[in-house]
Amino acid sequence: MVPFDATLIPEPQDEAPETVWELTRRIQAAIEDGFPQVWVVGEISNYKQHTSGHVFFTLKDERASLRCVIWKSTAERLRHEIRDGLEVEAKGHLSVFEKAGNYQLYVSSLKPRGVGALEVAFRRLKEKLEKEGLFDPARKRPLPRFPRRVGIVTSPTGAAVRDILHVLARRWPPAEIVLAPALVQGPGAAAEIVRGIQRLNRLGSMDVLIIGRGGGSLEDLWPFNEEAVARAVYASEAPVVSAVGHETDFSISDFVADVRAPTPSAAAEIVVPDAREVLAALRAQDRRMARQVRHRLERLGDRLALAARSRFFAHPEELALARAQELEDLAGRLRAAARESAADRRLRLERAAALLAEHAPRIRWQAAQGALGMAAFRLRAAGRTMLVHRWRARVDGFAQRLADLDPDRVLGRGYSRTVLERTGATLLRAADAAAGDLLRTHLAQGELSSKIEEVSKRQTTREKGKAQTAARARGRRKDAPGPPQRTLFE
Amino acid sequence: MAKKNAAKQQEPTFEARLARVEEIVERLESGEAGLDESLRLYAEGAELIKACRKTLKDAETRITQLAESAGGDLAEEPFEAEEET
Questions:
Q1: A144 to chain B nearest CA, in Å?
Q2: Is residue B36 part of a domain?
């Protein structure tokens, strides 16, 4: 150690000494010029975040330390957690804090030491598995629409499992849920996740699996970037939804899985439908079905009403008359035709007979004449009978169809006729009755007595048509006291 | 466990019921079904919808946790999530 020699201090250039401020500024300039870009590794200590938002800490190694500052705006953008003891790489520039007379690193970026290596490993594994085809979109299976059993691989404690269960229970109560508990960070986690996936598959009848965890740093999420987990997801028979970390975190398991969910809650929403929506859809189907059947019934009612309005209900005798007329017509024509042909034949026969008579005895001619008469008669009889039979068959057919359309027959199909007791008339309009009125209802078999509780004013087409038919029937009964229509065909 | 699964498989699934309802609605809307068939289909559809609604309204989520017994068999035990602290 050299003793201090005052004569060795160089004389200052100027006449007067510098101020502390002036000297400090010179030091600051020298440091700023000399260290504009710095990249340093060290251990964090004395980490402090001020209320102002700025972060202060010291980077140190065994022999030296460096004070560091992170401005609030930069600190907010940091993607990694900072704490004492963490080994980090920092980038920034050096300057001097004049007031305290020390130099500081003004940090522009900060990264935990190991993370670089992790990121490289991530990229490498991603490329390798992608080349092998584990991420192939074609092999991704569709998720079942209404899963009965849902498996979950996650930590049994913490927010992720609570969120998933909460959403599943709210949206789709019928689902059965089986949880395979597993560590989701730290050593051994990857193995537990793999085992969870395999055991759920072994259990069987799983419709879908959810694997995942809540947010964290890259190291925290790392188990879901392990190759073993990726292969277990790929090998899973049940389709897998991967929900790891926050929306911006992408894990290898996300790429291999059949579906990636941005968060655990989102996974639960993807995996089951919303029971409320399904109930609403069922309601809509119900309405459509009812509407269809109602329309069908109304259309049939309209057809019936139309048929009931037909001319032949009002004047069924017209049908018979028309047919009878045709029958007479045809009978007449047949008679004429028979006569003609008979006459024609007779003529020919007479000529032949005349010829014969010249050569044949009188008896034979008489016999021939007799035979002709008989033949002509039989021809007429046969023709008429045949025609009458044919027409009778047709008329019977019409009679049957008419009978089918008979309003009373309709009773057999479930329609009924209701009479208002106090007037004795068939009830056509609900408005003609009042609450409390007594009714008599005629069914296909038997009658009912009832009392009206409530009158609704709405009238359907079917009811309108039926009313008109009944009115016409009433009118006919008044005018024609003779036998009912059906006897025209007997 | 296998018996329970077999019983579940015999009962039509929710999905199967819903698919049949959609079939029925299509058939009814096609207008090809006669009145008798329409009424029968409607009754069937109404029953199915009732069953679906019951499944959704009566259900309570069942949550179990996988546990490995001593013999290495898998068993399901009831699971209770932690309350939020």
A1: 9
A2: yes
**Domain enclosing residue B38, as ranges:** 2-78
H/E stretch holding A305 reads: helix A275-308
Q: Chain B residue closest to A150 (CA)?
A: B63
Interchain CB contacts (distance < 8 Å): A and B: 113
Q: Which domain holds residue A386?
A: 311-405
Bridge partners, residue A397, by sequence: none
Q: What is the pLDDT of residue B6?
A: 46
| Regions of chain A short of the pLDDT cut 70 | 1-14, 115, 312, 316, 319, 356-368, 375-376, 379, 382-389, 391, 395, 398-399, 402-410, 457-467, 470-471, 473-490
Which residues in chain A touch residue B1, judged by CB atoms under 8 angstroms apart? 203-204
Task: For residues B80 and A170, give the distance between their C-alpha atoms in angstroms, rounded to a whole number.
Answer: 16
- Edge-to-edge strand ranges of the sheet holding A417-420: A425-426, A417-420, A438-442, A447-451
| Phi/psi of residue A236, nearest 5 degrees | -65, 130
- On whether residue A453 sits in a domain, the answer given is no
Number of domains in chain B: 1
User: How many Å lie between the alpha carbon of A142 and the closest alpha carbon of chain B?
Assistant: 15
**Residue-wise pLDDT tens digits, B5-48:** 444 456 788 889 999 999 999 898 887 888 888 889 999 999 99
Asked if A25 and A108 sit in the same domain, the reply is: yes
Nearest to B74 among A146, A158, A202 (CB): A202
Q: What is the reported pLDDT for A358?
A: 63
| Model pLDDT for residues A452-475, shown as the tens digit of each residue | 998 886 656 666 666 677 667 666
pLDDT of residue A471: 67
Q: List chain B residues with CB under 8 Å of A148.
A: 8, 13-14
Taking the whole predicted model, whether its pTM rises above 0.80 is answered as: no
Q: Find the CB nearest B25 among A158, A196, A288.
A: A288
B9 within domain boundaries: yes
What CATH number did the domain enclosing A174 receive? Answer: 3.40.50.261
Nearest to B66 among A158, A168, A179 (CB): A179
**Cβ contacts of A31 within 8 Å, gap of 6 or more:** A94, A95, A96, A103
Residues A152 and A253 sit within 8 Å (Cβ to Cβ) = no
Bridging pattern class, strands A240-244 and A208-213: parallel
Asked if the Cβ–Cβ distance from B21 to A162 is below 8 Å, we say: no
